[in-house]
């Protein structure tokens, strides 16, 4: 009798659990849809955890880097071309935006529909992995642009940078000093 009561109780609890919707993590949201919004904070968290697991510091979202990344992704999407220099080389784009970077690296890619896919592609590519693990960067901007009538559909840009003053060798200067 006790066994039957326990089974009925478990079935009742199981029925309650199925009514609760399971929310998909934002890193799995498809960017290959009109109006899709990239969760930049999820990207920053994912990249920061990856960096910490590999012995380098976390990064935070920088609004200006977000705008520069968005411009690059949109330029690639509008031209249906995967290219770092489609608009201009990164240093020129940062300079045009008035961004005072002292160190900056960029990953671009296309064809990945989710943040998880883009991250995995970058992680599995030695030059892109090196950029994600670049020592000294503290800020990031990321964007994904959807272009339905293109080969790749989604164009990605990740910019990692620092604005800390550096010496001629690229070593950060102690706070308050300039060379």
Structure at a glance:
This protein is an alpha+beta fold. The protein has helices spanning 2-18, 40-53, 63-79, 90-96, 115-123, 126-132; strands spanning 60-61, 103-110, 139-146, 154-162.
* Helix/strand order, N-terminal first: HHEHHEHHEE
What topology, given as strand order, has the largest sheet? 1-3-4-2
Q: Specify the number of helices.
A: 6
**Beta-strand content:** 15-25%
Name the poorly predicted regions.
none
Specify the oligomeric state: single chain
The class by helix and strand makeup works out as alpha+beta
Strand tally, please?
Answer: 4
Mean pLDDT over all positions = 87
Alpha-carbon distance between the two ends: 83 Å
Largest sheet entry: 4 strands, mixed
Shape: globular
Percent of residues in helices: 25-40%
Radius of gyration based on Cα positions = 21 Å
Keywords:
15% strand; alpha+beta; 4-stranded mixed beta sheet; single chain; 179 residues; 6 helices
